Amino acid sequence: xxxxxxxxxxxxxxxxxxxxxxxxxxxxxxxxxxxxxxxxxxxxxxxxxxxxxxxxxxxxxxxxxxxxxxxxxxxxxxxxxxxxxxxxxxxxxxxxxxxxxxxxxxxxxxxxxxxxxxxxxxxxxxxxxxxxxxxxxxxxxxxxxxxxxxxxxxxxxxxxxxxxxxxxxxxxxxxxxxxxxxxxxxxxxxxxxxxxxxxxxxxxxxxxxxxxxxxxxxxxxxxxxxxxxxxxxxxxxxxxxxxxxxxxxxxxxxxxxxxxxxxxxxxxxxxxxxxxxxxxxxxxxxxxxxxxxxxxxxxxxxxxxxxxxxxxxxxxxxxxxxxxxxxxxxxxxxxxxxxxxxxxxxxxxxxxxxxxxxxxxxxxxxxxxxxxxxxxxxxxxxxxxxxxxxxxxxxxxxxxxx
Length: 402
Fold this sequence. Notes:
This protein is an alpha/beta fold. The chain contains 14 helices and 17 strands. The strands form 4 sheets. The protein has a 6-stranded mixed beta sheet, sandwiched between helices. Helix 2 (21-30) runs parallel beside helix 6 (147-164) and helix 3 (46-57) packs across helix 4. The longest helix is centred in the last third of the chain and has 24 residues, at 377-400.
């Protein structure tokens, strides 16, 4: 089974919008063994969309489009599909009622029904988070361009499509999420484990960690599980979790699963609130998270965290000593502190750009780690954020885990 991804929107070609949808689509198609042969971008021009359809139809079984299902004049994807297939656009009365109900829920006084128009003969997939449903007809499926709406409907469609086309050879994918170890070192550590035929592996760098991805047919799942055990035996200290695990959720589980919920706060200089933001992304964190202090200047470190002026003068803001005193200024059960040089200016030979001190405390246990991260300013901050949370997770696991 072969597919093409067609991303529709002039803004994707003129730099006004960044494509993230195709990454998600590819990962979901992998799970069903559907091979992607082409990825194309086209402007909001019916003739150009139809040309893309003509090319794809000759080469693939399934065309997946995103974008152009909205209510405005430049949302023309369904018109292009209808024109290409020589179908007329219709409105389903049930879907019309559902759209009217959504308008009322959002206090919108609207009578625009373009979002539920569809080529005659189309199958619709309900949009639980937005307005326009996805539609499928004659090997073409169209989704809105909003990522949250795509993520709501693509799994529904693929479940339907796999059943309709008898796709029994489902792909099994297992992700092992790591942190604190470079990609090349990681590969050297585990590559000798991968001797099993028909199980493919790759290393993927994501913003939530470096993945070891194992991919095979579902019938080889037990063999994958054996390999995963070997990976844990080799590099357990660097593993955050698996598959959909995210470090912030795992931290939350530790904080809230104790007899007395553990409180947490953050003191951030170079990361500028990124750690606090990650934690606050977790629903329910208010039971544990007390405050996030962004103490960028020396004056803020002194005033908010009681860092000694003498410490700053003797060792500098970016130092182990300052990180320790920042931690001491946090009065919760658990704390994270970061201080570093994100660049591009400010580095010296002794303290280069990318140098970050990460401080973690859990109860009376404290650790401060010196790390040097590579990359541009924001990458350094992101990597310091992930590393700090990874180290906290490891300390919580050591103290409260199995």
